[in-house]
From TrEMBL, chain A:
It comes from Mesorhizobium abyssinicae. It is a multi-pass membrane protein. Belongs to the binding-protein-dependent transport system permease family. The keyword tRNA-binding does not apply. Residues 71-283 form the ABC transmembrane type-1 domain. PANTHER family: BLL4140 PROTEIN, SN-GLYCEROL-3-PHOSPHATE TRANSPORT SYSTEM PERMEASE PROTEIN UGPA. The lineage of its organism: Bacteria, Pseudomonadati, Pseudomonadota, Alphaproteobacteria, Hyphomicrobiales. This is sn-glycerol-3-phosphate transport system permease protein UgpA.
TrEMBL record, chain B:
Belongs to the ABC transporter superfamily. Keywords: ATP-binding, Nucleotide-binding, Transport. GO terms for molecular function: ATP binding. Pfam families: ABC_tran, TOBE_2. Residues 4-234 form the ABC transporter domain. This is Sn-glycerol-3-phosphate import ATP-binding protein UgpC. It comes from Mesorhizobium abyssinicae. SUPFAM superfamilies: MOP-like (SSF50331), P-loop containing nucleoside triphosphate hydrolases (SSF52540). Coiled coil: none annotated. PANTHER family: MALTODEXTRIN IMPORT ATP-BINDING PROTEIN MSMX, OSMOPROTECTIVE COMPOUNDS UPTAKE ATP-BINDING PROTEIN GGTA.
Automatic annotation (TrEMBL), chain C:
It is found in: Cell inner membrane; Cell membrane. Part of the ABC transporter complex UgpBAEC involved in sn-glycerol-3-phosphate (G3P) import. Probably responsible for the translocation of the substrate across the membrane. This is sn-glycerol-3-phosphate transport system permease protein UgpE. InterPro entries: MetI-like, MetI-like_sf. The complex is composed of two ATP-binding proteins (UgpC), two transmembrane proteins (UgpA and UgpE) and a solute-binding protein (UgpB). Belongs to the binding-protein-dependent transport system permease family.
Length: 294, 366, 304
């Protein structure tokens, strides 16, 4: 879309864009380029510049079982938390959209978790899911040893999935509800006149009409599960036990800043960037075109 | 006050030419209405005068000074927009006074001039309101006030009444007319509504397809349309058109079923022409009346003061406006009678008016 | 619509209520745990009746994690990011929507691409840039031979250096360098009627005048929405502040939470940890509740 009316002094126009351009050059394009450079070079231990190693960094990462473990953990985390957060939010939004008494309250409250910082809610969940105090401790009293995220990798993974999903239910809820409310009332009424009941209407009319939102949220949730998980992992499990929750961003951080392996971290960053770019392009190219009703 | 001289003005976008060489002289203090269907280039022409649109070719001069490259603010024009274009976040007073603020007019003088304009437009009690809280007619007046306060040399109106309901439109029409009489500033008014155009204009400019079809007083345009387009565009219901062909002894109409005895005035035999007659120039008579055309009634539209009768004339649709109380039933036969002086002739190829027939026309025997 | 679906309505209420409980429970539990004594909080099961140590725990958490200055740092960072975003995005969107200049589409795409890669995935090199924000420019001068030229001509050795670690600028700037706000404004500017621009031009206003007098006031809702979203987003940042504030003086409240994780061994001080958590989650929660309308609106608008 373009404006019909514009201002003619375009030299002024460019000036307006300069601050943003300087910012993104300095803090986006340069670092992104730098990451590519580092991923293809190896830093000398005692200074003296980088030496070119081609794709060696990538080869060594991809040959590393820890890295594959990190990818698997990230994918499991992405799949479970996205699925959980989206299904729950979809159900809640569909029901709230029925506008029964109290729906206003739900609309207000269900959004709260999304406002909370990931580390803060991670702390809350760390307590709630702690094996010795809090709530899972009650379960442990009945079945001793049933739950211990500090020792059991599956329990740890379940903990971070629970925390992340809790936050993103609120986020997805907002979008689903907006999508439901964007469906023209007359469509629902027409279906009702056609003799279709509430559930039938949901499957036949509302659900198909919100598929664009579903796909949109799918991509957003997956990308967020790569990024926003850092705070949760750092506070709740620190990647453990035994690397079972060492998600990709967390591994980049620990390799780069704790292990001081800039080249390896850069190569990992590049792989993660590619993954996210592919997802984003997938969303723009594929999904937006196939699922479009208006 | 200023005159506007438009010389061979053209406008083209990437590939499309939308205004093709327009020439027009607007005298100082004149109220000119540009009339045409949507997409005819009338708004583009107006916006080129305003300086909102680049001029692709030709010149526009205001008061003898070519303004092609001047910014809108340097041209001394004020404009009233179709959607009023009031700044929604400013009060009525701020809206009216904005141009003075931009020009750096001191606050006291500004307030005084806003008051003066508001008094003329009866907006004094609304000065603190936001546009959202105004009715359509009030918004319209604010838009006028915004134009007036600058005391511009030229007023430009871009279909300013099209968003009002019918009753308000009539009222605003007369208000604009009165205002013009009072300020007597040069005004150019663009519209697609022919009633608006007829009632407001000192002079009417009819445009079609990016070209000027006719310039003249409303009465001239109505009684002597320069082209087939103008004939059918001005007047409601539209002028009836019958297709014909020049024959040795006159004209044959409606595929040869009727004849018109006129001198062919040098036109080659076989030339296609169109004969027009206004619905209000036709009289209904009893079927079979000598010299009248017989037709069948299709539909009768009641207007209160009169009625429009749509008839079928050998397969061609034809309408008649009558104020007589006679109320022919659909399906019944009627006779159509008219005087030859009311006939208009147009070339079917070029659409332009053919006065040759008129000049040499003997009594037609139909 | 007249429709009687009592069973469905019952389940609707039931499910929504369960959802509500799950949504609110963590907040309530945090608040209750924060009010218990060390012994009570470690009781199994923990009592759901509030204890009496609330203010004591809050005070302990406040001093242990030094939350006063940290909250202030968080506030400066969040407000800085929000303000920076609101202003810089508006300028950029104005430029790409209201002007036609060569390279405009290039600029548009350069900005658009930044949407794809969040800060988290390029932290390592961004960290290096912030350590010396002049390094890109130094590198450009070196590569193009300009620094050599300058040294030859003036005798001055070019060595640009400006470290932003442990500074508010370093905290804020990289967080502003994305396109989110720009596209929010762009969408809005495209809906502003062209006639308003024309009216302003007829009234004699130039580009800057139009931007300040007409466009910005009309954008107030969008600014509120964007400001709210960005404030929350910045407040909740964790990884970036963690990296660049090597010195505690510039750490934020969120990064400081880590100090409150109970030690392994000994009785975990969950009451203190929860009190600290409550303090840290409260400001964004207040913003969400107070600015709900702008929050929802901004959220939906920034993602499209």
């Amino acid at each position: 879309m373009e404006k019909r009316v514009t201002f003619s002094r375009w030299s002024i126009g460019i000036l307006f864009a300069v601050p943003q351009l300087l910012l993104i050059f300095t803090f986006f394009y340069w670092p992104a380029g730098q990451a590519v450079y580092w991923s293809l070079t190896l830093q000398q231990p005692w200074g003296g510049g980088n030496i070119w190693v081609g794709l060696d960094n990538f080869r060594s990462i991809l040959a590393n079982a820890d890295y594959w473990n990190s990818i698997t953990a990230s994918l499991v985390f992405a799949a479970c938390s996205t699925g959980l957060a989206m299904v729950i939010a979809l159900v809640l939004a569909a029901l709230t959209d029925r506008q029964l008494a109290g729906s206003r309250l739900y609309r207000v409250v269900l959004i709260w978790p999304y406002g909370i910082a990931a580390p803060a809610l991670a702390m809350a969940f760390r307590f709630i899911l702690a094996p010795e105090a809090g709530f899972m401790a009650v379960v442990n009293q009945v079945w001793p040893g049933f739950w211990d995220p500090g020792l059991d990798g599956t329990d740890a993974m379940a903990s971070i999935i629970a925390a992340f999903s809790w936050k993103y239910v609120g986020y997805n809820f907002i979008f689903f509800l907006a999508a439901f409310q964007a469906i023209p009332r007359s469509l629902i009424e027409a279906a009702a006149m056609d003799g279709s009941g509430v559930l039938r209407r949901f499957w036949d009319i509302q659900f198909p009409l919100i598929t664009p939102t579903i796909f949109f949220l799918l991509v957003i949730n997956i990308t967020e599960s790569f990024q926003d998980s850092f705070g949760i992992v750092d506070i709740m499990t620190a990647g453990g036990p035994a690397n079972s929750t060492n998600l990709m961003v967390y591994k980049i951080y620990s390799d780069g800043f704790k292990g001081l392996d800039y080249s390896g971290a850069a190569a990992q960053s590049i792989i993660l960037m590619l993954l996210i770019i592919v997802l984003t392009i997938f969303q723009f190219r594929f999904i937006e075109r196939r699922v479009h009703y208006r | 006050m200023a005159s506007i001289t438009i010389r061979d003005v053209r406008k083209s976008y990437a590939k499309m030419q939308v205004v093709h060489g327009v020439n027009l002289d607007i005298a100082s203090g004149e109220f000119v209405v540009i009339l045409g269907p949507s997409g005819c280039g009338k708004s583009t022409l107006l916006r080129m005068i305003a300086g909102l649109e680049e001029i692709s070719g030709g010149t526009i001069a205001i008061d003898g000074k070519v303004v092609n490259t001047l910014e809108p603010r340097e041209r001394g024009c004020a404009m009233v927009f179709q959607n009023y274009a009031l700044y929604p976040h400013m009060s009525v007073a701020q809206n009216i006074g904005y141009s003075l603020k931009v020009a750096g007019v001191p606050v006291a003088e500004r307030a005084q001039r806003i008051q003066a304009v508001a008094r003329i437009l009866e907006l004094e009690h609304l000065l603190d309101r936001k546009p959202m809280a105004l009715s359509g007619g009030q918004r319209q007046r604010v838009a006028m006030g915004r134009a007036m306060i600058r005391e511009p040399k030229v007023f430009l109106f871009d279909e300013p009444l099209s968003n009002l309901d019918a009753k308000l439109r009539v009222q605003m029409r007369s208000e604009i007319r009165k205002l013009h009489r009072r300020l007597s500033a040069t005004s150019v008014f663009v519209t697609h509504d022919q009633v608006e155009a007829m009632t407001l204009a000192d002079r009417l400019v009819v445009m079609n397809g990016g070209r000027v079809e006719q310039v003249g007083t409303p009465a001239e345009v109505y009684s002597r349309p320069a082209s087939r387009f103008v004939a059918t565009f001005v007047g409601a219901p539209a002028m009836n058109m019958l297709e014909g062909e020049v024959t040795l002894d006159g004209l044959s109409l409606l595929g040869g079923s009727r004849k018109l005895n006129v001198s062919r005035a040098g036109l080659p035999v076989g030339s296609k022409i169109a004969v027009g007659i206004r619905p209000e120039a036709v009289r209904l008579v009893a079927p079979g009346t000598p010299g009248a055309l017989d037709a069948t009634v299709d539909l009768v539209e009641e207007l209160g003061a009169g009625r429009v009768i749509y008839v079928d004339l050998d397969g061609a649709a034809f309408s008649v406006v009558t104020s007589e109380t006679a109320h022919p039933a659909p399906g019944s036969a009627v006779g159509l009678q008219f005087s030859e002086a009311d006939l208009h002739f147009f070339s079917s190829e070029t659409g332009s008016r053919l006065d040759v027939f008129k000049a040499s026309m003997p009594v037609p025997a139909l | 619509m007249v429709e009687r679906t009592p069973i469905l309505n019952f389940f609707t209420h039931l499910i929504l209520f369960v959802g509500f409980v799950f949504c609110v429970a963590p907040f309530v539990i945090v608040a209750i745990a924060a009010s218990h004594s060390l012994k009570e909080v470690n009781d199994v099961p923990m009592s759901l009746l509030p204890g009496s140590e609330f203010w004591v725990n809050i005070k302990t958490a406040w001093t242990t994690a030094d939350l006063g200055p940290k909250l202030f740092n968080s506030f400066v960072m969040a407000a800085g990011v929000a303000a920076g975003k609101v202003i810089i995005s508006a300028l950029t969107a104005f430029s790409i929507v209201y002007f036609r200049y060569p390279g405009r589409m290039l600029i548009f795409w350069l900005i658009f691409v930044t949407l794809m890669l969040p800060l988290e995935v390029r932290i390592v090199p961004t960290y290096a840039v912030v350590a010396n924000v002049m390094s890109p420019y130094q590198a450009i001068l070196d590569v193009t031979g300009l620094s050599w030229l300058i040294e030859k001509v003036s005798g001055v050795q070019v060595s640009l250096s400006l470290g932003l670690l442990n500074s508010y600028t370093g905290l804020i700037m990289p967080l502003i360098a994305t396109a989110t706000g720009t596209f929010l404004y762009r969408q809005f500017f495209l809906t502003v009627p062209d006639e308003l621009t024309e009216a302003a031009r007829m009234d004699g206003a130039g580009a800057l005048r139009f931007f300040i007098d007409i466009l910005l006031p009309l954008s107030r809702n969008n600014m509120a929405a964007l400001g709210t979203i960005m404030f929350l987003w910045a407040w909740n940042q964790y990884l970036w502040p963690l990296l660049i504030t090597t010195d505690a003086s510039h750490a934020t409240a969120v990064t400081e939470l880590k100090q409150l994780i109970p030690n392994v061994g000994g009785i975990p001080e969950w009451n203190i940890a929860m009190a600290g958590t409550l303090i840290v989650m409260l400001p964004p929660l207040v913003v969400v509740v107070a600015m709900q309308r702008w929050f929802v609106r901004g959220l939906i608008a920034t993602e499209k």
